[in-house]
């Protein structure tokens, strides 16, 4: 998002809102926002195709709204409705993971803790051997770094 040449920037809008708390006559001023898009971008092209096929495509509307909100956040503007932004983000996360949008919580599984007290001695010895190997590798890596620095 960009601001017009003589318009309010995101930072100026934030300052004006801070001052508006003291002066209620200036609460209506909002920065004009211009969203610049690349019409050749695959996401924009797919949105165009979907809207051309079905003007009421809710996924296309949500995607376009999400694009605007992300652009606004990246430009330093504040969102008016963060709750709907979060809802759209959760919806898109579910879709990208191929989850049902209406799916509820997953049932909690019961975990059984097994007693491995007999094997503890063997695991400690194996762990000590791994630490010794790791120290040798660390020294080799330090030598390589000093050679590279020269």
Overall description:
With 150 residues, the protein is mainly α. It contains 5 helices and no strands. α2 (42-53) packs antiparallel against α3 (58-74). The longest helix has 30 residues, at 120-149. The two termini are 47 Å apart.
Structural shape: extended
Helix content: 55-70%
Number of helices: 5
C-alpha-based Rg, rounded: 28 Å
One letter per element, helices H and strands E, the order comes to HHHHH
The largest β sheet comes out as: none
Q: Mean pLDDT across all residues, rounded?
A: 75
Number of strands: 0
| Category from helices, strands and their pairing | mainly alpha
Bin the strand percentage: under 5%
Termini separation? 47 Å
User: What low-confidence regions span 5 or more consecutive residues with pLDDT below 50?
Assistant: none
Characteristics:
150 residues; 57% helix
Secondary structure topology:
Blueprint: H1 10-20, H2 42-53, H3 58-74, H4 82-96, H5 120-149
Helix pairs in contact: 2-3
Question: What can be said about this structure in brief?
Answer:
The chain has 5 helices and no strands.
